[in-house]
Structures are given as structure tokens and as C-alpha cells.
Amino acid sequence: MRVLRWVLGITAAVVLLAVAAVLIATLLVNPDRYRGEIESAVRRETGRPFVLEGHLRLTWFPWLGLRMGAARLGNPPGAGGPDLLEWQSAAVRVRLLPLLLHRQLEVGRIRIEGADIHLRRGLHGRGDWEDLIARLRSGSGTANGGTRSLSAPATTVEGLDLTNGSLDYVDERTREHVRLTGWQLRVGPYHAGAPLSVSTSFVLHAGNFAAAGVRVSLDVPQLRAQATPLQVAAPRWSLHVADAKLQGALHASRAASGQLTASGSLTAAAASLRKLGERLGLSMPAVQDPTALAALSLSGSWSYRHGALEVKPLTARLDSTTLTGWVARSGGAKPLWTFALEANQVDFDRYLTRPKTKKPLQLPVSALRALHAEGTIEVGRAQIAGTTLKDVRLQVH
Fold first, then answer.
1. What 3-state DSSP class applies to 273?
2. Per residue in 197-248, pLDDT tens?
3. Of 40, 213, 297, 345, which has the fewest CB atoms closer than 10 Å, so is most exposed?
4. How far apart are CA 68 and CA 31, in angstroms?
5. Backbone φ and ψ of 292, nearest 5°
6. CB atoms within 10 A of CB 390
7. Domain ranges within the chain, ordered by starting residue
């Protein structure tokens, strides 16, 4: 018992000394003194200018944490435009005892506030982020040209919180401009081999979208992903775009030959197809019945292999029409659309506008041929110009 008391006493003393040492360090050490060394280390790793504009602050036991104010990561020498990345504040913490006693690196939630990301693809077709990613992947930025330690401690991360961020993408070749504002990102705890939870929301500004943008949110509660070989699995995901909701599952992989294979399921619903199209900046057709193009829903299973896409089975409902069947698109240089669809009923009088002068009804055969498609469409009952047709079959070659 006496030996046990000695061991406990020595252990308690060591812990108290460690706590005291950390406390004294945080009170006496000014982390701003190391600002230059931190900036130099980041420049060495990334090959880009890095500036810490805000103060650095340390937190203490049981977490050794670092908080920093505004900072910015610039572009390569000679490149113009706004900085690649800047943020208003950031914080990261590491639990001390697991690292000291068991070589376990337990990182707390990483929090970044007000991050602004600026991506530019120049006229030469190269993105201003590509060299940075290549550098980090190759590890060429490791100090003194060395290699990273193979005995690095096991790492867990409690997650990532990105709040009030934005992303701006410009392609100078196509003049495409996409912006995300009000960007929120939350990533759950990371443990090797375990799935991640990811949720994000933002306002999307692009193309002919409404001036206020379109609200988008994505939630993936269990995401498994690896880069080499590429494998992605999301047993369940949900996406909201304006008033439309999509959800489903995704499984994707890339073979050593480079062939991408993917499959999954999809369900979607929108209270009004017309309003959704207008929010997305689409030119919606004029129809005879102003209440048409309303509620839309669809569901199906899909697969992608060797460049070919297939949706089978497919069920869709628009207004009073229910459509079932399948649709496929072949791979190759000249892809061909094939389909076999059945509709219970279609009231064409709701959609076809009435011309001022009477003309015979003409089906859009030339438009269908331009699609490079072939298949069949069967309609149980069709209403056209006050005439009811039953068991209509259309063959497209």
C-alpha cells in the first residue's frame, strides 16, 4: 500500500507540475513573438505569401489551443487578383495528456470565421489553386526537403466549423462567374476508418439566377471517402435547392484503369415546377392553363458505367400525369438516348397555347430527331383539342 501511495503521489505531482508549467507558459509567453516563424513556415510549405494580421492567443490545460485573428494566404509571385484565402478568425486546440502519454493526437473542433475563398481559372486554363494542391500532395514543401515521419501519432479531429464564409469562382475563358455567400459548413468528428458527417448551406449566385440568389443546403450524415483508389459512399444524402428537395444514396469508385463506376437512388419533389424554374433563371414555356407545371415528383434508381447512364426504374408525376419506365444514355463519341415510357393520361389542352389562326396539330418530330434518341412513349388517355384519344403509342427513331 505504501508503494501504491508513493506512485499515486508522484503521478499527482507530475500532473500538477505539467499543469503549472502550461499555465505559466500561457501567462508569460507572448505567442506574437513567433508570428514571423509561423508565416515563414506556411510560406515554405505552400510557396505563397502568408500574413497574420490579428493577434495570436494561447489557451491552456487540458487543451493547448491557438487562436488567431485575421490572416490571408496570397497568390503565387506575379499573379494578380484577390488573395486565394482570407479569414477573420480561426482557432484550433490539441489535448495534451493523450499526446504526451500515448502519442495520440486529439484535435478539438477547428473553427474558422469569415473565410473568403477566391478561385480564378485564367485564359490559359489553369486554376490559381492547382499548384498549391499539387505541392501539398507531393510533400515537396516539407521543411529542408525531408519526408514526413512514418511514426506520426494516431490522429482524431472533433470536426470543423466554417461560419459566415464565401466562395468566388471566375473562369476567364468562358466568363463564368459563380458565388457562394453566407456559407456555413459543419464537419463531424474524424476517426480513421469511420464515416464523416457533413452539412453545408449557402446562397448560390450564378448565371440567370434571381438577384437574391438561390438557397442551397446539403446534408450527408454518413460519408465514406478515400482518394486512392477513389471510393465514395453516402448511404443517405439530402439536398434542398430553393423549394425543391432531393434525397437518395450514392456509391462511386474508380478502377485502376481509370473507369468510373457509380450507382444510387434519387427522389425529388417540388411544389411548383414553374416557380422553381423561374428561381433558377430558366425560361419557362407559356402554357394555356396558368395552374399547369405545378407539383413535380420523381423517383428512380440510376447507374453509370463506362460512360453510359441508365435510370431504371423511373417514376415521375407532373400535375395529373404519372410517367413510368426507364431512360438510358449510351457512352462513346456519339451517345444515343433510348427510352420506354408509359403515361396514364396527358391533357395536352392544358399546355398547348391556342393559335389565333387554326392550323393542324404538328408533333415536334424534328426536335425529337435532333435529340439523337429512339424509344417508345405509350399514353393511356390523351386530351387534344377537345378530342380524347386512348392507347396512344409514339415510336421515335
1. helix
2. 999 999 999 988 877 899 999 999 999 998 888 899 999 999 999 999 999 9
3. 40
4. 10
5. -75, 170
6. 9
7. 18-194, 311-397
